[in-house]
Amino acid sequence: SRPANYTLFGALEYLRHIDVRGMDCVDLGTMDGLIAFTLASMQAGSVVATDMARRKTFEAGRAYLGHDIDYRHPVSIESLGAELAGKKVDLLVCCGILYHVFEPLISLVQCRERLRTNGLMILETQYAYAEPDAVIAYSPADRAGGSIHANTFFRPSFTALVAMVETAGFQVVSTISTNARITLLARAARPSEI
Fold first, then answer.
1. In terms of DSSP bridges, do strands 70-72 and 46-50 run parallel, antiparallel, or are they unpaired?
2. How far apart are CA 158 and CA 133, in angstroms?
3. Of 1, 32, 123, 140, which residue has the fewest beta carbons closer than 10 angstroms?
C-alpha cells in the first residue's frame, strides 16, 4: 500500500534544491544506490556510496548508468572516518540508518565529524510523530508503535531528534515528514551558531 522507495522521497526533494556540482558526497547505507545515482547524475564532484554488504543491484545499476561511483562495503557509521582516511565531505546522505544503530547520538556526532563546516547532511529516519515530548522509544519494547524488524532499535520524537541533531553540531534547516518517517536537512555548524 506504500509507493516503492517512499522513504527516499524527502531526500530526493532536498536534492532538487541543492547544487551538488563539484561537491564531495557520501551516500551512507546506499542499498540499491538510488541516492548515489542521483548525486552522480547531478554532476557531484565525487560520490562515495557505502553499505554494510555488497549488493548486486547497486553494481548492476552503476554499470548500466555508467556512473563513476566509489562503492565501498562493508562500511558502518563507526568505520566511515577510517574508510575516508579522515577526509571531510560537503554532503552526507544518511537514509534509513539511525534506527539501526545502538548509539544514535554518537552516530550523529560521527556524521558531523565527516562534514566540512557548512556542509550538509540529509538524514531520514523513523520517528514518533505523535509524541510531543522529547523522548526516544525503544522499539523492541514498544508493542504498540515499535517496528517488527529485529534490527530496529530507537524511534525518537521530533523534539528529541532535533535536539540530538543540534547536540551533534548541526543546525536544522528544514524537515519533511512522510508516513511516520522524517527527513531533515541540516547544516554542519559551529556550536555558537546553534
1. parallel
2. 8
3. 1
Q: Report helix angle 158-167 to 104-113, nearest 10.
A: 40
Distance between CA 19 and CA 4 in Å, rounded?
Answer: 26
120-179 pLDDT per residue, tens? 999 999 999 999 999 999 887 776 776 667 788 999 999 999 999 999 999 999 999 987
Distance CA 141, CA 130 (A): 18
The answer to whether the beta carbons of residues 176 and 13 sit under 8 Å apart is yes
pTM above 0.70, yes or no: yes
Q: What are 76-123's pLDDT values in tens digits?
A: 999 999 999 989 999 999 999 999 999 999 999 999 999 999 999 999
CA distance linking residue 59 with residue 32, whole number of Å: 8
- 184's grid cell: 531533515
Q: What are the strands, taking DSSP E only, across 62-130?
A: 70-72, 89-95, 115-126
Residue 103: C-alpha distances to residues 5, 18, 69, 77, 145 (Å): 25, 29, 29, 11, 20
Contacts of 165-173 with CB under 8 Å at 24 or more apart are 165/108, 165/123, 166/194, 167/105, 167/108, 168/105, 168/108, 168/109, 168/111, 168/112, 169/109, 169/112, 169/194, 170/108, 170/112, 170/121, 170/194, 173/120
